[in-house]
Amino acid sequence: MTDRADNLPERRLPERARPATPPDRRPGGRTARIRAQVLDAVRAELGQHGYEGLTMEGVAARAGVHRATVYRRWQDVGGLLADLLDAAGEDDWEPPNTGSLRDDLTALNDEIQESLVTQPSIPEALMAASFRSAKAAQAQQQLWEDRYARCEVLVERAVERGDLPPHTDARRLLIAATAPVYHQLVLLRTAPDPQLPAHAATTATLAAAAGAFSRPAAGEES
Predict the structure, then answer these.
(1) Core-most of 33, 139, 156, 192, by most CB within 10 Å?
(2) What is the largest CA-CA distance in the chain?
(3) Angstrom distance (rounded) from CA 194 to CA 109
(4) 201, 180 in Cβ contact below 8 A?
(5) Of the candidates 107, 82, 113, the residue with the CA atom closest to the CA atom of residue 95
(6) 109-141 residue pLDDT tens
């Protein structure tokens, strides 16, 4: 659920129904190289200048690409940010698998905290940008949906081990476990607490084991 860890899994369609790959999305080749150069430049510009200093011209210059190419493919800064977030969801990141829900959530929170305190913090810059660009906001939402979907396996494994009630709501549990890290570092702007990732994970795990995040079983009233 981090930028490093900075699109949703491909849906498998029958061969006849699967659309042809658009020319500008083909794997490899010059187009892929240009995209990689430009997105690397976006990360660098965000880290150095923040959202306020991010410009199409600055990205083009840093990437060594003609600005007309950048404008033609990405249109504006919002398009650059949206593609950067899309690229974050194309990685092969997987959530921790320690054999313990508490330890899985602690490791996940450690990753989140590291991504937010490392300067410059690209995830923090992207979150700020998403409030000012509709394209970036939509891409940010898709990325979060993808990260939560990938992390649901943590809860599924805990249910299979018998550590949690069978109808535990994975999304609610994951939000409860990770929210304190974002609250402290992004909202309150406090110094990082090395104990916070484990404390938040422990609190959420205990609450989940007690049924705090249980969904009504099929046929039961909420």
Answers:
(1) 139
(2) 61
(3) 10
(4) no
(5) 107
(6) 999 999 898 877 778 888 888 888 888 888 889
